[in-house]
Amino acid sequence: MIRRLIIRAEAEADISEAALWYQARRAGLGEEFITEVHAAIESAAANPRKYRRLRRRPEVRRVLTRRFPYRVFFVLRPDAIVVFRVLHGARHEREWKTRLPGN
């Protein structure tokens, strides 16, 4: 089954904020971060059940980026994958719940 990929504006803001921070550290690093996060999202879209489930209803899963210490949180729906939060690894794991769709 092919699911639509939806990246919520709040998740895009998380990505942009982190990319700007990395870009300020070294030219080009922000773009590398964005590429890495989008690769993680594409991997989740291709095989969403491969990733750790954090909640059953709605079904929330998490994918880790490889190079950067970030976690991408998404809701798995029958028709779509909804990315709603991108958090740095140092942030508390439960912080994703503040943006859970439907809350």
Architecture overview:
34% of the residues lie in helices and 28% in strands. It has 103 residues and is α+β, with helices and mostly antiparallel strands. It has one domain (4-99): RelE-like (YaeB-like fold, 2-Layer Sandwich). The chain has a 5-stranded mixed beta sheet with strand order 1-5-4-3-2. A hairpin with a 5-residue loop joins strand 3 and strand 4 (70-76). The longest helix has 18 residues, at 29-46. The radius of gyration is 13 Å and the shape is globular.
Tally of DSSP helical segments: 2
- CATH 2nd-level architecture: 2-Layer Sandwich
Low-confidence stretches: none
Structural classification: alpha+beta
Distance between the termini: 27 Å
Q: SSE string, helix = H, strand = E?
A: EHHEEEE
CATH class: Alpha Beta
Number of structural domains: 1
Annotated CATH topology: YaeB-like fold
Quaternary state of this entry equals single chain
Strand content: 25-35%
Helix content: 25-40%
Largest sheet: 5 strands, mixed
The backbone outline, from C-alpha atoms, is globular
DSSP, total strands: 5
Overall mean pLDDT stands at 93
Order of the strands making up the biggest sheet? 1-5-4-3-2
